[in-house]
Amino acid sequence: MKKASFIIALMLAMVGCSGETEEASVLVSDLVNPIQAENTEEKVEEKVETPKLPETAIEDNRVETEIKKEIVIVEEKRTQPMEIHVYSTEVPWNESLEKLESDLAIEEAKEFASINAALTSAIEGDTIIVHEGLYREMLNIKKDNITIKAAENEYVLISGNELVEGFVPDKERSGVYIVDVPANYKTTTLPFSQVFANGSVQTMARFPNLTMDDMMMPIEEGGGYGEITKIYKDAGTLEANIEFSHEELPDVDLTGGIFRGIIGKNREYALGEVVATEGKKVTFTGTNSAWKHTNSVGPKAYGFGYGFVTHKNLIDIPGEWYVESGKIYYMPDGEIRDLEVEMQVRAHVLQMNNVDNTVLENLNFVAGAALIKSSDNSTIEGCTFRYLKPFYMLNGYGMSDSAQTGVYIENSENNTFKDTYLGHTWGTGFYVAGGDGNKFYNCIMEDIGWIGTFTAGIYSSGDNTHIEDCTFRDNGRFQIRVDKDIKIDVLHSTFERAMKLGEDAGPLEFTSTGKIAPLDLKGSEIAYNQVFDLRGIPVSSGGNPRQFVVAFYMEDVNNYTAHHNLIYDMEAPVYTEGFLKGFEGDNIFLYMGPRYNQMTKPVNYYNNTAWDYVRNINVWNIEIANHAELVAGGLKQEGNTGSLDDGHFANNLFNEGPFSLSWYTQDLKPTGGKIVNVPNPDASWKNITTDSMDEYFEHGEKIGYFFNPENNMMLDLETGAENYMDADNGDFRLAEDSPAKGAGIPIEGITSSDTPDLGALEGSDYVLSAGAKLKVRDFKEIR
User: Fold this and answer.
1) Segments making up each domain of the chain, as ranges
2) Structure confidence by residue, pLDDT tens digits, 550-563
3) pTM of the model
4) What does the alpha-carbon distance between residue 601 and residue 621 come to, in Å, rounded to a whole number?
5) Other C-beta atoms within 10 Å of 620: how many?
6) Which of 366, 389, 348 lies closest to 159, judged by CA?
7) Which helix (H) or strand (E) holds 774?
8) Which of 79, 103, 380, 446 has the highest CB neighbour number within 10 Å of its CB?
């Protein structure tokens, strides 16, 4: 604490007449010290008098002067960094500790019960020690060189929630209780919310009911989605129609509710406001993508899909809630008086704007996103971010539509995330927008992207991004997404169960997004990673079912090396009943594009092991029919077609399966993208689909695709597993009698001997230990 120091200048003036001495009266009044002091002084009043003399009669020329004390307050500004302690007044998981910390919070020199209050008092170099408890605030960091960390072995929770109290029974809905939303909840900043009971997230009311502990299982019973058919929209209207295939909707008014549909390809997914329901049918006004326009959608465009409706009148099982018109409607699981109910009211729980050298350690954030802008050289270590974003409406489907729904890092450099957990959210994970040198070590990103459109565990457009020893699992779509020319190293990490709400993409999603120029990864390294348990879901677009997922989705991408990666457990599902009977999925090891882009820089694949998938490599080439016209308009690409000029594929282990290359001819827009397909029968011979690896690589050389293959091997699916120690359980060390042992070529900087093994286990079993070693802590508020 600081003490205020002040100087009192006391001026006395005695004015006399005819040489007589007059009494001088001085009244001194103190000012209240505006700065908290360790020893608060009482108000001072001083009166200074001279000795009394005999009175002399004085006429009109008598003068009496009263002079008050003048106070100058000089605040002693602290210049030396110190520790500042913060004590919570709320510890719902430990009432005795709550009482203790409440007392400490008001003790002298331990006065902070708010982290932001401590930040206001802090100076550069301070360390703020936060003690166990719940802090209902948005951490707003505005000063450089500040460290904020939890006290050793103490659990600190920073929450975007507020308590909700005063529930009364809803007279219109049996078992449902109703209460006003917290006064600081504003739909202008947070249109939708989240509700928690005793720390556990509750379910926004929906049809069909969500009864499993997984938000991304749309084709499973209890997954909260229903199969939908008869999907159509007439021209000239925004109203679209769908029907649930099996159950009828409850006979209640659902007007004003929200319809969410996984319909067609990702860009075609539907959102809208319900305007009518009858039986199994829902009519909704579309609000996103093509659904917000008056174009027609024929009944054959989408054979099937999955969807749900959400509305307060759908509350029918314990744990469901809905917020409408300033009220929370909630059906508790048990007695309402036994539950501590909370509702998210803050959109963000962390903001760092234009600050450097911040350190955050062992802090837990819940119910809110994070914004980090123009902030450099900071470290976030041992922190957790959960339930960052509630359900939300979006206009499109791309990454930018969900950019600020997670931890958003803009124009920031050399920040490190270490031993950090991010999970359970409708939105995206880490979004790195520009900047340079941001790093992720030993982090877990899981259960991300419930909204189903473009989201990722990590998206980056920042150069020199580094990801190492991380675990990505259970994502609605991507796990890493890159669409700008950056260097990004992805090392010793695991990618599990991506694409749970879509198809036509993969966990590692790198793409030029369709511009005429390949993505330049500037020598990036993708090494010692595992990709497994990749399925996707079946969708219908153009009337045809699709379920296409890719381990390495490297569309129009060059100047990188992928080595010692292990890809497995991608067996495509075969459907034997229902509307998908006879349909098989299509899972691929590598999709390369490059469409119309000339890939002139290296594309290297060394010592990778891929097992249990359908197709090996897929190339989609587009010849530019109007190339001369585009060059005249300023296009810099000299060639009129895609190419792979400098590939090198060596020491890889594949399983048997097709290799394909398809050749199209199109007129393009100047910025890329098809105007129209152009017939080109003379190019039909350039298409190829073959099970022969050698034939494929030889054919590629004839049309500008130089894979430069060396010492690759294909294993048949029936007996190939015998080459591995225990492929069924992920142990892909080579058996001693495998012909892949010692069958490779030496590659400088890649292999470990002159006669290296083929595949990802060459040199060591390092790839088998990929992924984070972080143990997710117990979250004490869940009780």
Assistant:
1) 1-77, 80-160+346-387, 163-342, 508-523+549-741
2) 999 999 999 999 99
3) 0.90
4) 17
5) 18
6) 366
7) none
8) 380
Angle value at C-alpha 497, between 496 and 502, nearest 5 degrees: 140
pLDDT, tens digit, 9 for 90 and up, residues 323-376: 999 999 999 999 999 999 999 999 999 999 999 999 999 999 999 999 999 999
> What secondary structure does DSSP assign to 583-640, as a single string?
-B-EEEEEEEEEET-EE-S-EEEES-EE-S-SEEEEEEEEEETTHHHHHHTT----SS
Structure tokens of 653? 């282990």
What tokens does 644 get? 């792979």
- Residue closest to 447 by CA, chosen among 438, 437, 459, 455: 455
Q: What residue ranges of the chain have pLDDT lower than 70?
A: 1-75, 99, 101-111
Structure tokens that stand for 65 in this block: 């002067």
Q: Where are the beta strands (DSSP E) in 34-76?
A: 45-48, 70-75
Q: What are the CA-CA distances from residue 8 to residues 45, 368, 641 (Å)? A: 12, 51, 86
Is residue 771 a contact partner of residue 470, using CB atoms and an 8 Å limit? yes
Give the residue carrying structure tokens 């990929």.
770
Single-letter residue type at 289: S
User: How many residues does this entry show for the chain?
Assistant: 783
d(CA 657, CA 335): 58
Residue among 480, 478, 652, 694 nearest 563 (CA): 652
Three-state secondary structure call for residue 266: helix
Distant-in-sequence contacts of 517-520, Cβ < 8 A, 24+ apart: 517/597, 517/636, 517/637, 518/556, 518/557, 518/558, 518/593, 518/594, 518/597, 518/598, 518/599, 518/600, 518/601, 519/482, 519/483, 519/484, 519/485, 519/556, 519/557, 519/558, 520/485, 520/558, 520/559, 520/601
Determine the residue type at 264: G
